[in-house]
Specification:
Elements lengths: L5 E2 L4 H15 L15 E6 L7 E5 L5 E6 H7 L1 H19 L9 H7 L21 E5 L4 E6 L4 H8 L11 E5 L2 E2 L5 H4 L10 E5 L3 E6 L4 H7 L13 E5 L11
Parallel strand pairs: 1-2, 2-4
Antiparallel strand pairs: 3-4, 5-6, 5-7, 7-8, 9-10, 9-11
Helix pairs in contact: 1-3, 2-3, 3-4
């Protein structure tokens, strides 16, 4: 039997991912079929540098897709954990290859969450370690390390100022950066920071809270509203867009 799909590198994980994708598409266990995904137009690759995501599916806009998986996720959680990620990315391949289907985490994705046994958001797979983050959050009241951010963000500034607290006990957070504990927002960030009140549209991650926004309607706002964007800090799919009055913006409002 011919195995469909190309290999973008010689990594064993890429080969195993292609084999499993063939099981999903040509087998009887899952609802995705060759009518949904043309695996002959999908390439499988392994990334040794990808640490913020378990996997990603990109497209050239003509239905040729590349599914890239994180070696770190495989090393920490094993291939069994990555099977869900592969099914997740196959949904995106289906979206890219199907005319008239949205390509984010909107209705076409949500409709396959339960049938494909997906979590509905980015799966954790393994516990993040403090060294995985550039900025690390510690609860000052005994909960210890609770998470972090890969780069400077509104959440880091809020944690330093005490307006973002521990989600378990509501205690304040201690923030550690590359050079130790941060007691104040660095001067180089103060001049570049923006006033949250200036944002006409604000983006709220269900895990991280306020993660950004825009001063006016734009392509980014539309992508977030349609579920085509994930939180760059935690990978969560559930991001709300709210106006200045706190009302949630839906696709019907655009």
């Amino acid at each position: 039997m011919v195995t469909a799909g190309d290999l973008g590198d010689s990594h064993n994980l890429s080969r195993r991912a292609r084999d499993y994708a063939n099981e999903v598409i040509f087998g009887d266990e899952w609802p995705l079929t060759p009518d949904h995904v043309n695996l002959s137009r999908v390439t499988f690759e392994t990334s040794t540098r990808m640490t913020r995501q378990h996997g990603v599916c990109s497209s050239d806009g003509r239905g040729n897709c590349t599914i890239r998986l994180s070696k770190q996720t495989h090393d920490r959680a094993g291939f069994e954990a990555l099977k869900e990620t592969i099914r997740h990315e196959l949904v995106h391949a289906y979206q890219h290859q199907t005319t008239g289907i949205d390509t984010g985490h909107g209705e076409s994705f949500k409709g396959l969450v339960e049938p494909l046994d997906l979590s509905g958001r980015c799966s954790t797979h393994y516990e993040k370690q403090p060294e995985d983050y550039k900025y690390r959050f510690y609860c000052v009241d005994g909960c210890g390390f609770i998470g972090g951010r890969h780069r400077w963000s509104i959440a880091v500034a809020r944690a330093i100022r005490g307006t973002q607290v521990c989600g378990t006990c509501d205690a304040e957070l201690r923030v550690e950066g590359p050079d130790g504990v941060l007691d104040d927002v660095p001067e180089w960030r103060k001049d570049n920071s923006f006033n949250e009140d200036d944002l006409q549209y604000q983006f709220y991650c269900e895990n991280c809270g306020l993660i950004g926004g825009r001063r006016q309607m734009c392509k980014t706002v539309r992508r977030v509203v349609h579920g085509a964007t994930i939180c760059e800090h935690c990978g969560c799919l559930n991001i709300e867009t709210r106006d200045k009055s706190g009302n949630v913006i839906t696709p019907a409002d655009l």
